[in-house]
Every structure is written in C-alpha cells, then in structure tokens.
Write a structure and sequence with these properties.
By secondary structure, this protein is α+β, with helices and mostly antiparallel strands. It has seven helices and four strands. A hairpin with an 8-residue loop joins strand 2 and strand 3. Helix 2 (25-38) packs parallel to helix 7 (164-173). The chain is globular, with a radius of gyration of 20 Å.
Amino acid sequence: MLYAFDCDNSLSSFPEFQSGEIINELETIAIDILEMILGDRFRYCPQVPLEMICSRPETFTRLPIELWKFWVSSRVDITLMERGYCASRKAKLVIECQSHWHDRPEVQVRDRKKARLLASVGVPLVYLRQIDRSTLLSFLHSQWTKRSLLQLNYPTRTDRTGSIFATLFNTVDS
C-alpha cells in the first residue's frame, strides 16, 4: 500500500522533527497523585481542547472572532470524567497546572477567560501551582511527623501559592 507521502520521498522534507513529550512533568505528577487519591473512579485526560468541554449547540451560529479563536485554540491541562460503560463523557473537573508563566498579565487574562467559559458550563476548575521539589519534600516531612497526611489543614482553593497536595486534597474533601 502506498501513501501520498511515500510517492515523492516527502519525509526528507521534515528533517527537524523529533518525537516530543505529550504531557509535562507537573501534569504527570498531578495525575499520579489524583490516581492515588481517587483511584480508578475517573478517567484522567491530559490536554483536552476547550471546545470539547464547552461545546456550542448546533443552532448557535456565530461567536465573536476573538472568542472563537480563543475557544478553538485553547486546551486544559487535565480533565476528569467518569469511568464506566454508561458513564457520562462530560468533564467533571478541570485542573490547570500553573507555572511562573501564568504570572504574566496577558496569560492571566487568558486564564480568566478560560475560567469564565468553564464556569458557564458548570465545570469546576482547580489551579495547581508548581513548586520546587525541596519545598514539597520539606512540607511533607514537617506535616507527616506532626499528624496523618489526610488530617492536615490546607490552604483554600483560591490560594494559588499552595502546594500540589493542598490544592488536590482541598478539592477532594469539598
């Protein structure tokens, strides 16, 4: 069987391509922690297009061009949906992993727009702030020696400087 790109040796016209990562380290850690906490009750889907979560009715014909561009080009970092044969395939929770990049004013505008779109369809959004490993290990060690990890008092969901664990446990307990 011949493919279109085989006919003219067009693979040689892409010499700079290489296999890339499909998920970053913070997203991988977050999914691992979610799986430890929630088990297999949910599917953990990385890099889901915003237009899949916030779909439009077929009768709706036009969006303002800037909103449409944002809607079709944006993705969310992690989406949780129910697992099971007859389960809903709609998003139950969205997690956005925040690095120092999200401190920039223009990125914060995009983040707020994404949050408003998700709120408009009733999908909860949780932010995870990236922290360095030594801070995380120090936090875990200090808390683990004081009491059980699940009994900790964590910062509120709106505390964007909290740890990965703080944000996740606060959401799960709510």
